[in-house]
Amino acid sequence: xxxxxxxxxxxxxxxxxxxxxxxxxxxxxxxxxxxxxxxxxxxxxxxxxxxxxxxxxxxxxxxxxxxxxxxxxxxxxxxxxxxxxxxxxxxxxxxxxxxxxxxxxxxxxxxxxxxxxxxxxxxxxxxxxxxxxxxxxxxxxxxxxxxxxxxxxxxxxxxxxxxxxxxxxxxxxxxxxxxxxxxxxxxxxxxxxxxxxxxxxxxxxxxxxxxxxxxxxxxxxxxxxxxxxxxxxxxxxxxxxxxxxxxxxxxxxxxxxxxxxxxxxxxxxxxxxxxxxxxxxxxxxxxxxxxxxxxxxxxxxxxxxxxxxxxxxxxxxxx
Length: 319
Known about the structure:
Elements: E1 24-25, E2 36-41, H1 56-64, E3 74-76, E4 81-83, E5 90-95, H2 103-119, E6 123-128, H3 134-139, E7 147-152, H4 172-177, E8 182-188, H5 198-206, E9 209-212, H6 214-226, E10 234-240, H7 262-275, E11 277-284, H8 295-318
Parallel strand pairs: 1-5, 2-5, 2-6, 6-11, 7-8, 7-10, 8-9, 10-11
Antiparallel strand pairs: 3-4
Helix pairs in contact: 1-8, 6-7, 7-8
């Protein structure tokens, strides 16, 4: 008897090209046909101190191959569900072109990639890069209906302008809140010394940002946190890897102690996928050179693969 593990090429993790999850590569953005498309955004000119997140997409892709055995999806014995089976079509569309030192052109190229994914009716999953890559991602949603942003992060990223800079990695949530189709932001994990001053927090709350620290999230629990997101909201989820504790995610330019552990984030993401339509995802600020164990990139890949599994299992249950 032949099972699904025996069909096609085996394509084990250490063999071949490191596309995300060993999924097919589609370089032609005019011919996308998939449920989800992975786009790399290897841009880190927005960093204020330690650069290196330009290598994040490459590291996360390579780490994702660790979970890519066979062709039958991934069985979760706790949920009694096989996630990301062959019925879920995921393609890797490569990276947006980044023009060194040119933020606006690089951001425009990222936006072009996200728009191509949305035009194809697929879910955009963007791997950064620093958090400024969220700015073109959110721009791409103009004219596509209202969205609510779920932000997992150590930092509020709500700086308006500093030294004339409006599109750095401290600005993305401020730029998002200015968009009339962004109905609000739920920010989880915000803590410690931050690039955003008190007036930024006041502006954020006035513009619809619900801000919770790690300790506040823990006190509420996943259900309490999810209850604060407006019912029926279409969610765009942005995950800064520094939202996690640097004890498990040291490979980032701006580590902040006291962050989330793995299951705290995973349970929130699973609940969000069950309760809401997820319309876009980005995961940013993985800077692999600060973590020679590779654990940060593995964490990022594992979070994305699990979240994709939750999203498409929930979608199948609604049809």
